[in-house]
Amino acid sequence: MAQTVTLTATTREKTGKGAARQARFQKQVPAVIYGHGRTTQPLMVDALALEKALTGIEPESTLIDLTVDGKKARTLIREIQRHPLRPDIIHVDFYEIKADEKVTLKVPVHLVGTPDGVRNAGGVLDQVTREVEIEVLPEHIPDRVELDVSALKIGDSLHTRDLTIVNAVILTGADLTIATVVPPRAEEVVAPAAEARWPSPSSSARSARARKAKRARLLPLRPRRKRRSLRRPQRSRSFCAPSSAWAIRVRNTRRRATMPAFFSPRPSPSIGNFLPSVAPSARARRKARWQAFRCASSSPRHS
Fold it and tell me: How many CA atoms lie within 13 A of 215 on its CB side?
């Protein structure tokens, strides 16, 4: 018969992700109860009491006598959600049942005995299916289903049709394999690898290596290239690079004004060679005058 566990729950007024997180922070597990036309009701269960009640039992086949605000209800656990990294329970679904109505649930299959093929022939017992689905009244819910495998030899198997459950109907397919005995696997003996040997070089290869070594001794060593610095060279204060055509024009005008007659450049046949194509803005003119002033103050004067 199925085991019975008693739990106490309280009504949870607030719902949603934030309320669930707050309940878990207070050592409470969010839960819901539903079934038989009952409106889904949010609950809270003490986390420590729930962990203690579920220790050493099969949750899916255990009857839960749940007390909610003084009212008792017989339920089954339909789903348990756990944290992906920790073993903490984060949510539980309770399904209310009636004593005179059949329920559908899954019960574990427990193998009993040592197969003959394992004991005498060195075979391996392989359990393929670990639980089956049944339909049964709540008072007849089995804790687990036992299956005797003592007579199995190598190659034999047991199926769902070999199970016997009193006062229950097995819903799982009859041809589903529960357990089988397979022959032992032969260990592969890996042959030791042969010791690797380098092929003896021919006379031509030896002479080529000797010529290469001699040439390397005679050639001078290549000078080591100087490593380039990644830092940008710092410009001197006397250096002034014009940044626009208007600044170039002002700089050239200042230089021609300060140079003697025999140093004056030959006049250009077209004034458009040094005039900018677009009239500069006031900001560009101020910048050009400032750069021209710096260049004129830093460049040497010709007498």
Answer: 6
What are the pLDDT digits (tens) for 155-169?
899 999 999 888 889
Give residue 165's Cα distance to chain centre: 44
**Joined tokens for residue 259:** 């140079």
Model pLDDT for residues 237-256, shown as the tens digit of each residue: 444 555 566 667 766 766 65
d(CA 99, CA 140): 10
Q: Is residue 194 part of a domain?
A: no
CB-facing half-sphere around the CA of 269: CA atoms within 13 A: 0
Among 182, 202, 225, the domain-final residue is 182
Q: Which of 40, 68, 97 is the last residue of a domain?
A: 97
* Structural domain includes residue 49: yes
Q: Is 203 inside a domain boundary?
A: no
> Would you say residue 303 has pLDDT above 60?
no
Edge to edge, what strands does the sheet with 168-170 contain? 145-148, 103-112, 131-136, 168-170
**61 and 20 co-located in one domain:** yes
Tokens of 287: 């910048």
Q: Which two tokens stand for residue 36?
A: 């038989």
Q: What CATH number is associated with residue 50? A: 2.40.240.10
